[in-house]
Specification:
Layout lengths: L5 E4 L4 E5 L2 E6 L4 E5 L2 H8 L4 E2 H11 L4 H17 L3 E3 L1
Antiparallel strand pairs: 1-5, 1-6, 2-3, 3-4
Helix pairs in contact: 2-3
Protein name: Coenzyme PQQ synthesis protein D (PqqD)
InterPro entries: PQQD, PqqD_sf
């Protein structure tokens, strides 16, 4: 993955918003996930294909964080989503 990688959603999960957090359920596995903070925004951004750099730019406008920390955290979260096969990275 790099800043020019394209993120595409592969699996649409059942997502419920609860007081600023998202609860996602993967009915195929029975797993559920709770998204907080920037993960909420990232999930919203990836509903349409998007370049990682665009995610980083949007997050940097919302959060007071260094670009390196933003990139590291975003890459880590996207890697987790890819590991669950929720997204593909091109």
């Amino acid at each position: 993955m790099n800043d020019n990688s394209k993120v595409k959603l592969v699996i649409n999960l059942d997502v419920t918003d609860l007081d600023g957090e998202k609860v996602m359920i993967d009915f195929s596995t029975g797993n559920y996930f709770l998204l907080k903070g920037a993960a909420n925004e990232i999930w919203d951004y990836i509903q349409e294909p998007i370049i990682v750099q665009d995610i980083l730019k949007r997050l940097m406008m919302v959060y007071d964080v260094s670009e390196d920390v933003c990139r590291e955290s975003t890459y880590a979260f996207l890697t987790q989503l890819e590991g669950y096969k929720f997204i593909s990275l091109e």
